[in-house]
Design goal:
globular; alpha/beta; 9 strands; 11 helices
């Protein structure tokens, strides 16, 4: 099946407008800005484990053809404290393979840039994994966004901003005040943790997320909110959009389906795409 067209979809009138870039931010639009535009369809961000030998060139096409808008390009860490067995296992395979992780990241970003219909690329990393290679100027120029977890990001923020890379925020299920305050400045999207604990499929989506999204909007957050952690079925994906989310993040189920093969992953994402666009 071929890539789904990027159909425009107007935001519901009761949803806050998405963030508008200020003069202090880079004026040049990148691929992530286009995916997150106010009139874009609901965004689907998917985890892609960089360096995992199970995720080859055929697999990346499955994400694209399945309808992913954003690929969170996971840089492996030895202590992925937020991730459950699926994602942590992918990181373990990547580290054990001895792959040139940042070389693989470069290859992926080059592939994404070859066709405007391919997903935007967001580097997803833990601070403890070491960010110095990620911050090399030539590499930053290829990235659309960055989602970095852990302490010590603030001093690196200027490097991302000066290279036209949109930093993305993370707000835990507890809605910590410091997390919300930091997210207010995120020029990319904000990922809201849909359930406490590690990543991994859940049987249901917590209905309290509707109120949490409303609270974030009431706090002044205008960035697109993507609900993630545990979303594993088309029905849950549709519920997230109906709760007011601008999109979703699907991680563990992408890894799990990818382990069954590219066709299984593409079919799974096609069902998610159809649900959020309904």
């Amino acid at each position: 099946m071929f890539p789904h067209p990027r159909q425009a979809r107007r935001a519901p009138p009761d949803r806050m407008p998405r963030n508008v870039m200020t003069q202090t931010q880079a004026i040049e639009l990148n691929r992530l800005d286009k995916v997150l535009a106010a009139d874009a369809r609901p965004a689907i961000a998917c985890y892609f484990p960089i360096g995992d030998p199970q995720f080859d060139d055929r697999m990346r096409n499955a994400y694209w053809r399945g309808g992913a808008d954003i690929l969170e390009l996971g840089i492996p860490a030895r202590n992925p404290f937020l991730d459950g067995p699926d994602v942590a296992g992918a990181m373990g395979r990547a580290l054990a393979s001895g792959a040139d992780i940042f070389g693989r990241l470069d290859d992926m970003m080059c592939w994404l840039a070859e066709d405007d219909s391919r997903p935007a690329g967001v580097a997803m990393a833990y601070v403890e994994a070491g960010l110095e290679p990620l911050l090399e100027p030539a590499r930053l120029r290829m990235l659309d966004g960055a989602l970095v977890l852990g302490e010590g990001l603030s001093e690196r923020g200027n490097a991302f901003a000066s290279s036209n890379v949109r930093t993305c925020g993370f707000v835990s299920a507890a809605l910590g005040e410091e997390e919300i305050a930091a997210a207010l400045d995120a020029p990319g999207y904000v990922m809201l943790q849909a359930v406490s604990g590690a990543t991994g499929p859940r049987a249901s989506l917590d209905q309290d997320n509707r109120e949490k999204i409303a609270r974030l909007r009431a706090s002044g957050l205008t960035a697109p909110i993507l609900l993630g952690f545990g979303i594993s079925t088309p029905d849950q994906a549709r519920q997230a959009i109906d709760m007011g989310a601008d999109g979703i993040v699907v991680g563990s189920m992408c890894v799990r389906m990818g382990m069954q093969g590219a066709d299984a992953l593409e079919d799974f994402l096609g069902g998610i795409r159809a649900a959020v666009d309904a």
